Structure formats: structure tokens, C-alpha cells
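Page 42, continued from yesterday. The earlier attempt failed because a stray header line got pasted into the input along with the sequence. Redoing it now with the clean sequence only.
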Amino acid sequence: KGQTRNTRQPVHMMLVVDTSGSMESEDKLSSVKRSIQLMLELLSPEDRLSLVTFSDDSKTFLNRAIPTPEERQAIQYRVNNLIAEGSTNMSAGLLEARGLVEPPSSGRKQGMLLLTDGHANIGVHSEQGLIEILQRVQSESPGLSLTTVAYGVDHNAEMLTNMAKAGGGAYNVVTNLEDVA
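This time it went through. C-alpha cells are written below.
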């Protein structure tokens, strides 16, 4: 019989967020913002949070932020000011997040959450090419998983499911604000 655990292992959650123009339709970006808000409530000061956005190119918004109560407000403020514009360079987002991975000595479990509608259209945009980038990142960072969260009814379900499988994570769907929780 296993022991009951009262504490969880600290995590480093790397959010890779699609801020391309397609995320404006169906309030997808609003749902992403609400998802991040709910996730912030689950993190403790032992955890770390990184945030990368991608559209025409990628940008690191947060690098291993410590989610204290004060910092959560600052993080949410920055998230609330994200806007949707441009094309979808998903490969740039994945490669940007690659540089944020912590060394194994951090003691934190690391996961990458890809929040997108999956309509990659510039950079490496084939499913196989994106999976190869993911596999390269994982070969450098054993134990790193990728979970995909698909937004909107028009998301690329096949690609996001296959990326999650290849990344050792899960595939989830958010079609409206009610699905966020």
C-alpha cells in the first residue's frame, strides 16, 4: 500500500501561448487568459512559471517567475494585456521555450503547456516538423512533457493530439469560457 502524499513536487510550468490573429475569433485569447488565471491559483511559491508568446515571432514574457501572491497580480496584469495579431509561428514559440528549461538539479518537475488553436502557418508548420522540434527539446531535457490545450471549435485536433502524444502529455479542449475550468 502506497503512502499518502500531503505535498506535491514543485513544478516549473512553461506556458507557450499563441497570440496570433486567429486567437481573436471565438474569444480564444480571452479563454487562454482565464485559463492562466485559474492555473496561477494552483501554484505555490516553490513553483516557477515561464511564459512565451508566439505570433509572427516569439517573445519571453516571464522567465521562471515565482508565483507569490504579489507576483500573481503582476503576472495576471501582463497576461490580461496580451493581444492577438499576426501569423502563427508555433515553431518559434517551442524553440523560445527550449531556452527556459531548468537543469534537472532544480528538483522541479517541468512541463510545457501549449495553448493554441493549432493553425501554424509560418516557420516550421508541418505536424512532423513540429514534433521533431519537440523531440529535440525533450532529448536535451529528459522528463519534460508537452500538454496541448486546444482553443475554439476550429482547432487543429489531429496535430495537437499527436503533439501531446509525442510529448508524453495530454490533449485538452476549450471551446468557450465555460470550458476553461
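Notes: The chain has a mean pLDDT of 93.
Reminder to self: strip header lines before submitting.
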